[in-house]
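TL;DR need structure tokens for one chain.
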Amino acid sequence: MPLVDIDIAGVVSDSRRVQPGDLFVAFKGGSFDGHQFIPQAIERGAVVVIGEESGIQSTVSYLQVENSRRALAYLSAAFYGNPARQLTMIGVTGTDGKTTTTNLIFKILLAQGLKAGMISTVNAVIGDQVLDTGFHVTTPDAPDIQRLLALMVQKGLTHAVIETTSHGWAQYRVDACEFDIAVITNITHEHINDHGSFENYKSAKARLFSSLHETVDKPQVRQRLAILNRDDASYEYLLPLVSDIHVSYGFNQHADVRVANVKHYQSGLTFLVQGPGFEFPVQSRLIGNFNVSNCLAAISTTILGVGVDAQSVQEGISSLSAVPGRMERIDQGQDFIAIVDFAHTPNALRCALETARSLTAGRVISVFGSAGLRDKQKRYLMSETSIQLADYTILTAEDPRIESLESILSEMAVGAESKGGIEGVNYWRVPDRGEAIQFAITLAQPGDVVIACGKGHEQSMCFGNVEYPWDDRVAMRACLCAHLGIDGPSVPRLPTSK
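>> reply
TL;DR here they are.
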């Protein structure tokens, strides 16, 4: 059918969510082809269809485009009135630390009195609303992002902090977000299976920085700026993309924003931050050197990118007690430390275990798994890391999906034994994650640290194609209560539970 003026009620890419009057965008995914669902979308009431294939026979207007995913992003933005153009947009990406950095920036902006919203992989915060962003770690789809940004504009917000994943960039979900400030935490080994190579993974992350040159001019924006980590290999990789509009941060003394006099405590950390025209002390309730780096990224962003004052930085950072599932302490009165952390990459696990080690003169007991249908090399690398840095290692389930959990654990065991792991002595395979956490707790002595890594804030675990309710924090609390003989929650049940 020829194109005509048509009123559009919504923009969707899932034929099951089509409502009468919607525009349906068809694209090819890893295991599906949306073009096959065009008849169903029309049957449900779609009045316009966008796709990449030619020769589509449609009873409604059909428009062929080169890239359906990118078209979806810009169509969604247009449908919601291009909300990003009315906001100062701050994008945060990286392998590890993005959620914490996003939260730190958000807290600092609020302390300054700015009307800011946040979209992270944990949740979205818009005014007094806290909204769920879905299962597992990902960037919401383009229509959802634009809807949330439009809600921010509707509520009178002026700044938006968006955590962006490599999938979000590779799948064009955050195109049309018109970012003004781009922040990197680091780029380490992750998502190789999804992107095909480490170079492709880096390239996806880099799109945030190249997008700065495409952002429309906004009268309300102070300046466009890239915030780079001078301590990370990503610095040299990203620098050519933003050489004229960047500042750097880090422990490196050549960084624009530097740190001195770092002191660590069980209850947090302190340091002195130095930058162009400023120097002041910072106190945080977060722990670990990696959180010093996250704080520096947030400070660089807010002072040099937004123009926030030092007092607001201090207040904002000190106000963040914890990020859900990020080095989160679980205390039921036990005589050892119990922690839940999202660390699911070799680098993040290393940072988590090093931090755990700094908290105790006793032993570190780690519990973690490695996801199915994901980068298999991590299985060896993470096990090697744990054997090197923890006293006891318990290998367990983490979203095996359609892979054999037994096979995953066997591959992890190879990595453990390559670094001196002896099964039954310093490492164990416990397939059920609840039993694994319980076993770790039985090993703990006064002053030890038990740390469960990989799931963090997530609310489900995938076996086969089914998401089962699961929360490491609930499981840890339940196991602690059982250990202490006090009332508490029940451990969520999984297909591996006896």
